[in-house]
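Changelog-adjacent note: as of this version, every example in the card shows the full chain rather than a window. The one below runs 373 residues end to end.
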Amino acid sequence: MINLKRFKALFMAGVLTTGLCMSGMGVFAADGENTGSSTSTPEATPSIVKELVMADGITVPNAEFEFTVSSTTPGAPEVANITIDYTSETNKGEVGLDGVYHIAASELLGLQASQFPHAGEYEYTIAEVGNTYTIEDSDEESMTYDSQTYTVRYYIVNGENGLEISKITAENSDQGKVKDIKFTNIYEKRGGSDVDEDSLTIKKLIEGEYADQTKEFNFSITLTAPATYDGSETIKAKLNNDENSQNVNVTFGTPYTFVLDHNDTLVFPSLPAGTTYTVTEIGVSDDGYTPSCQVISDGKTAVAFGDGDETADLTAKGTVGENSNSAVFTNTYDDGEIVITGVIINNLPFIILIAAAVAGIAGYVVVKRKIAR
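Full-length structure tokens:
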């Protein structure tokens, strides 16, 4: 679903420049080599860096990522598989310049000079194990793994106090010599997936005792996909008008216009979490209806839009998260616009009763006078 290489340049811009410790010195210089020559500190070792990339509106998954470290150099010390864990409590940090989170974690490779049998060059290959995160429903979430492999070389020399690490170099299958042993994974979810709802619902309500609930209002919506998204540019939606439903197509980045009256909806069943949208109700001059809007993003407290101007356009914005997402536009009719003249229908039964009573009394008086004569 996601082409990792396609986004590599984008994600690399937001990558943390992780310090790969080597007793106070960076493990790799710009050319991928250790900056020192022989060092008396044999514990120097690089780290494997895991970068999890995900859009806004998504909780960090409880995921374990595993890496193999293997060598074909005779006598090279063995290294057990290395794991890096993420949980829902992992701090996501700040959103990057590309609009998504880059969550970095690392583990030391763990090799020390004293573990090597003698001086020489030792080569290791590091790769990520695929599919370590269990996907329950591929329609609801996805994890894309980094397919790069890294070649790391340890140069061990005979120092004054025994074996020492002279330098360490690293290169990968895509870029040649590198500074970081870094694997980037991309995690995606469907909006509304955690509550088993449609991703986004735009709804219209018309209120007021004298409101015309057949009155139509014009709208426009523009969707923006998250940087992690690599699917179709066209999204399917359902326009529900007066108990009728029709399928429509909405293109990311292109305004889509539609019409809603009372209780009508525009529903997006499957948007990627992290999608942002702007939806506008077109104002109508002097129609007596005051618009307002309540937006819920990722199940959080509703945000109100609208300043009470019935003639101006009303624009609302939101972000689609893994929980509930909706924008409900309410147009309230000013009942003061109706000027009531003549008989009030609601009081007509009482008027008839009073008239009947008056007529009865008058008849009684007339009959009584006739009898008196």
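Structural remarks: DSSP finds two helices and 23 strands in the chain.
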